[in-house]
Amino acid sequence: MEKGRIHVYVGPTCQADDILQRFPEVVVHPPVSHGSFFSSEIESGDVAVVVDGFYHHRLGARHKEYLYALDRGVTVIGTASIGALRALELSAYGMAGFGVVHQLYRAGVFDGDDAVAVAHEEDAPYSSLSVPLVNLYTAAQAARAAGVLEAGDIDDVVSALRSEYYPTRTHARVAHILRRVGRPAMAEWYERQVGGDPYVFDQKREDCLGAIDAARHLVAAGAVGQVTGADGADWKTLFLRTWSNHFVGMTGSPPLAHRLAYQQIFNPGYARVWGRYLDETYRGHQQGTAGGNACDLADAVSRRIGAERFPFSTTRRKADWLYDFICPVPDLSDPREVELLLSAEESTDADSVARHLRQTREFTDQVHDPTSGKTSDVLPEEAGKILLCRIWGMPSDELSRECRRRGIPNIKAAVRILQPFIVGAVKERAHLRAEAV
């Protein structure tokens, strides 16, 4: 059986070249950010070593994204920097912590992101431009061991260094602060030590390299991650599903989300596909299982809302009631659900999707003003609604129900997923019907 891989999410704490020189088998990623753990590149049996994370220039990874990785069988280790803090916060749910920095957080010596934060270059190799407080704590401890600082003075020194805003806490600024608070001997000693070895007090870097070594042992032992201490219903929220779908949906060529949107908008019979998806998903059918559960879709919905029986109308078809009532968000990371959702996709549809996307992209490149820094929809919502009426061949007062019959929650969402195809639809006129009354 093939062993898992080690993925390291790192930036300013340790250079990628230094890591690969010692651990050539690892996969080095940029600092962790929103969406990192939704990648299909990480799989069950892999180990993710989280060192650094973005937080100023882009969205950081949410806590439930870490749980998402654990739930996929990925062992997640946090160390050295933001990873050490997240490991402390998520230790009850299966994330492991490693290293001295993590222990400092556990002991309550530090309790916030500011202790590990540094200013750094925005692009790789993300070189540090300032000194993290946890490394200065290591320096203070070393100064005490060298007889340069008294044990009782460590807290005062660290407090003085903490008061400096982290992006301006450079080595030169550290020496200046030490002199300003009456510690000239330590300032001179600090400058000599750092001048001789820039990594001499770099606890974060040491923890990072140690965590990767520990990850090697976990991979060799066949470790598989899991969420502990949490009921899945408590953390697998709609937000998490939406985040997952956003990143998973952008995979493939053409992207999966656009392939699905094309079917929802342009397949005349997609209501039948969506109905089959609801039936299979809500009754819990498994692929290849004959008959499924004894209950029907109405029973499943009734249990969901706590009613004895879903109140179907005697004057309206059963399916219409269901379409009006329920429009769940599919799970695009589930191959079975994707198979159901794209069951009516024809061999030529992917080419049509790619062509429409290209046509819209070429159009927007022509009309977009790069100096504005903004992008806009091809058509406003009202014009999009008119186009939907043409595509579906119906009056506007039936659009809402037709959206739900196709698995689209509302008209606004339908116009949004139509946007990438508008230019192609108008240009080719292949999907436009006679004007609806």
Shape, principal axes of CA atoms = elongated
Query: Spatial order of the strands in the main sheet?
Result: 2-1-3-4-5
Q: Please compute the radius of gyration using only Cα atoms.
A: 28 Å
As a percent range, the share of strand residues is: under 5%
Mean of residue pLDDT values: 86
Helix content: 40-55%
Instruction: Give the N-terminus to C-terminus distance in angstroms.
Output: 62 Å
Tally of helical segments: 21
Overall strand count? 5
Structural class designation:
mainly alpha
How would you spell out the order of helices and strands?
EHEEHEHEHHHHHHHHHHHHHHHHHH
Largest sheet: number of strands, sense, barrel closure: 5 strands, parallel
Low-confidence segments = 285-295
Could you describe the 3D structure shown?
The longest helix is centred in the C-terminal third of the chain and has 19 residues, at 349-367. This protein has 437 residues and is mainly alpha-helical. It is 48% helix and 4% strand. It is built from 21 helices and 5 strands. The radius of gyration is 28 Å and the shape is elongated.
